[in-house]
Amino acid sequence: MGSPSYPLTLDLTGRRAVVVGGGPVAARRASGLVEAGAAVEVIAPFLCEDLGALVAGGALTWHERDYLPGDLTLKDRPAPDADNSSESAVEQVFDPAWLVHTATGERSVDDQVAREAEAARIWCVRADDATASTAWTPAVARGAVGTASEGLTVAVTAGGDPRRASAVRDAVLAALDSGTLPVRRLRRATPASGAGTPTVGRVALVGGGPGADDLITVRGRALLAAADVVVTDRLGPRGLLATLGADVEVVDVGKTPGNHPVSQERINELLVHHARLGKRVVRLKGGDPFVLGRGGEEALHCLANGVAVEVVPGVTSAVSVPAAAGIPVTHRGVAASFVVASAHEGAEHVLAAAADAAPDATLVLLMGVSRLGETAAALIDAGRPADTPVALVERGWTPEQRTTTTTLATAARDAELAGVRAPAVVVVGEVVALREQLGDLAGSSVTA
Ligand code: SAH
């Protein structure tokens, strides 16, 4: 295949395509043609199992014989004025195939097919000799139905080295799944029927993980790459926003303490509004969408308004931020359970959450900085030892990660001395002591 080639995709629906040969290579070619909707005829005295199955399933026509001159251009059809009782009456009509694959394993036969194809101007793919072919089949990757890559076809050729082409095709498939390719649809599919039927978009509530760009899930990353609109928070993998195309609308509803937050009601409205315009909306949230993140309310609002919604779980800060600081939330012989609570609503709420927990349970508090003193005092009053170890882990999984260790009795004072600020995860329990041996465990990204 040293000669220049001209990549092209064909619509073979209902068009005659001939496969000469009955072995496994012919079977692969025939099944590809069947998938493409071609009217496939196989010419071979014997069939391998796969081809036999295709014939049995009625997917193609089998001529049980050797190849004959004229097979590419002439076609049998029932003779119109023959005696109706004679089922075998056929006549031959000129109906050239659009494409032929020859894979007989016999050079002289493949030569003959190729020669006749050339004379009749029919493209011919030869299994035995790519250089003697007039057409080549690429290695093909198709975006899976229902994923962000749906509708994409990538075809790879490698100059007569099919294994090399397959290897690249496999890498492309992996990249399609990873969400690192710009797979976003820029042209909407036209509705098949009902002119003007609006295409309704959908909303994906994507958990972005605790902050590092590569702690989002593969599915979340892929949906992000396909999004038309991204509604984002202050927390989560904000670095990924820079990877979005210039025409992707990014709506930042991130609250910073003291700044005007966008109300939850407004966020809900935004999601529905954009989806109704036919957009693919990603609601990118820090951590996991359903852990103290109001993702459930967003999902309910979408459904109540007839907008399809899906959730993509994320790595919650409740577990991953302590881990980054070398604190396992459970550890054999130290703590066999953990409780996650919001400290935002006040100490009462934290006490209620901790009340039924095992005495050794680790307590993980989110949004716990502003009311730390009050919360720690209430826990001591409720019977937790004043010297219970406490860790305050700020900005986990970012370059600014910082951990302050203290105790319930001294937490408020130490936090103030160190200038601890939100976002931080507060960990209360004996597991905090493990940090002395483990130290910081947040490795750096392997891809960055
Ligand atoms: N849905 C999120 C939690 C949202 S509540 C999740 O699953 O992680 C917001 C709180 O999460 C913050 O106040 C803080 O306590 C915690 N948090 C989130 N990301 C954090 C990070 N990178 N470092 C420290 N705390 C974080």
UniProtKB/TrEMBL annotation:
Keywords, comma-separated and alphabetical = Methyltransferase, Porphyrin biosynthesis, S-adenosyl-L-methionine, Transferase
Domain named Tetrapyrrole methylase: residues: 203-411
InterPro entries, alphabetically?
4pyrrol_Mease, 4pyrrol_Methylase_sf, 4pyrrole_Mease_sub1, 4pyrrole_Mease_sub2, CobA/CysG_C, NAD(P)-bd_dom_sf, Siro_Cobalamin_biosynth, Sirohaem_synth
GO process terms (BP)? cobalamin biosynthetic process; methylation; siroheme biosynthetic process
Does this entry carry the keyword Chloroplast?
Answer: no
Q: Top EC class per UniProt?
A: transferase
Top-rank lineage group of the source organism: Bacteria
Which GO molecular function terms does the record list?
NAD binding; precorrin-2 dehydrogenase activity; sirohydrochlorin ferrochelatase activity; uroporphyrin-III C-methyltransferase activity
Q: Name the chain's protein.
A: uroporphyrinogen-III C-methyltransferase
Which species does the entry assign this protein to? Pedococcus dokdonensis
